[in-house]
Each structure stands twice: as C-alpha cells, then as structure tokens.
C-alpha cells in the first residue's frame, strides 16, 4: 500500500495530493508512523525539490508545490511526524530545497514548519538551525542568517514578512541561554535587520501578525538587555559599548590590555573569510573569560 502511494507521489497530481492530505489528517499516529517508515515523507520532499528545480515550471506546478507542502504540514501536525523528522536530520535539510523557490507562498509554508520545529523541542530547534547551516554551505555564503534577512528585506507581501520575522524570533527566543540569545540577535543586527524592522514598523498597523512579531522582537530584546544589567546603554551601538568599556578601564592598568586587544583586532582583515573564524573565536573566548 505504501509502495503504491510512494510511486504515485513521484508523478504527482493535484488529486493525489488532495487525497493524501485528507488521508493523513484522518489517520492514526500508527498509520502516520508507517507512512514515514515507508519513506512517504522522503518522497514528498524529493518531489518538492524536483518541482522547485524546474527551469520552465507550468502554472499547475505552483499548485502542486502548495499541495505537496500542505501534505508535509499534515504530517508535522502529529507528534509522530515531528519526532520522526527530528530523529532523521536529512528531512530538515531537504526543506532547504524550497528556499530557492520563486513561489513565496511555498516558502512561507516551509518557514512556518521550521518555526514549529523550533517551538516543539530543543532538538527541533537544533534541526532548524542545521537546515540553515546546510543551506549556507550549499550556497557557499559567509553568514547563515543572511538569506533570511535578504528574504525579509525583499519580501513583497506583509504576510510573508510576518512569517519570516516569526521564524527569526523563534531562532532568537528559543535559544537556551541569555548569552546565546544575545549572540544570535547580534548576528542579525550585524546583517542590518534593525533597519528593515524600522521600515516594517510603518506597515505594522495594516497587519496584526506583523505587529505581533515586531512586538515580540522588541520585548525579548528589552528583556535581555535588562537582564544584562546595562541600564541606559544602547547595547546595539558598537560605539556606545566601546566608550562604556573605555570609561571602565581608563586611567587604570586594564587600559593597557584594552589597547593591546584593540591593536590585535585592528590587524584582522574583514575581507578575508578567515576573519569570521577569528571574530567568532574571539567572542567565545571573551565570553568564557567573563564567566570566570
């Protein structure tokens, strides 16, 4: 039965996907687990990738992609589906095949699924980040979150922008520790997300979902900054933080060490890809030092 279904899914029709979606929504957890073990989800994601890669897609292909993603969503609406996806990392990596899709509605659905993984469990959160890391390596880019920021900047609909910001919020909010949240948020800030968010604020009154996500971003940022205990200091301003540190060490023995550190950092060429490793290592070492 599952082999016949898998064969049918490899040459999909709207009717095939519609029937499968209905079947999944009405089936038991046991049936869904058998469907997964029979590589049903694997075939769905494989087919989605092929539909995305088509050089000259037909009009019907856009609907096939949407129905295919809808079937994946039905699988992930079950605990068995989520657990199986988390236990098999290849599935989340296959999600990234949709990132190159020109159909924003399809990508919106994929980001909804990745947000669901983030909120489901710590392991699900890890799988979502692995998907972004996989895409970064696939595209040979320097920053794993740049794709998300570019999508947010170029998104043509408010609904898609709200979904992207929701996923970005999930990446930040569901990080375990304060320092992880701050580090991840700073990664986004370094990619100029605050400029995009400021532009989105002018649109937020037209869409309640976007308003909610903007509020979530602000709320958690403010909470984390309060927890860090630097009242009145703009922690998003490198210049403000620099002067605050300089004020702390000036006219003391630490000022010499501070200057030495700055001189070493000045030698790091930001155009060199190795500089990413240097800065990341420096950040981790400083973090460890502050926890002593």
From TrEMBL:
Gene Ontology biological process terms, A to Z: actin cytoskeleton organization
Any one GO MF annotation of this record: small GTPase binding
Residue ranges occupied by any GBD/FH3 domain in the UniProt entry: 1-292
TM stretches of this protein: none
Pfam family, one: Drf_GBD
Gene3D superfamilies with a match to the protein in the record: Leucine-rich Repeat Variant
Protein name in UniProt: GBD/FH3 domain-containing protein
